[in-house]
Design goal:
Number of domains: 1
CATH topology: Rossmann fold
Strand content: 35-45%
Number of strands: 8
Shape: globular
CATH architecture: 3-Layer(aba) Sandwich
Oligomer: single chain
Largest sheet: 8 strands, mixed
CATH class: Alpha Beta
Amino acid sequence: MRRSYYKELQDMKELADKGIILDLGCRDARDSISFNEAGWKNVIVDKDCVALSQAVVNLKKGCESHCEDLNKFLETDDRSFDIVIANYVLPFLPDYKKSLKRIYSKLKEGGIFIGCFFGDRDAWKDSSKLTFHNKEQALKDLSAYKILDFQEIEESRRLYSGELKDWHIFEFIVKKT
């Protein structure tokens, strides 16, 4: 079952009334729809323009879309954000450590970062083009933040293509302090 980050942050008492959210590699924007419905402004970025067009349809109001490379966007956009979502995208970035630093710099003080790392037992672990973590590495990469939620998950789940995949991921919600 897909997580409702909006509700989780409300329950944690970590959510402002309204703000601006950056959803990197948003696909259909499923992770940020509930924020949009609550009146947040969504800035969505994906290099897949077809997926991005579906996200724009899903986000009914306050949506700004960018069809471009995520690192390029992080380099050139000079705004700060209340929340950054980078779910299932960090492992695909060529220099994820540089991307993590850019995300940190884009967050306002007290801002929330939601994302995940692929674990070292993931079905794609033999790919040299992706980045994988063990639990210790994942926690080290998040050490600049206060950890609000950190979960290690191993499960079989379908990809967008419908193919079944064995996942090993570290999902996190962290706060810039």
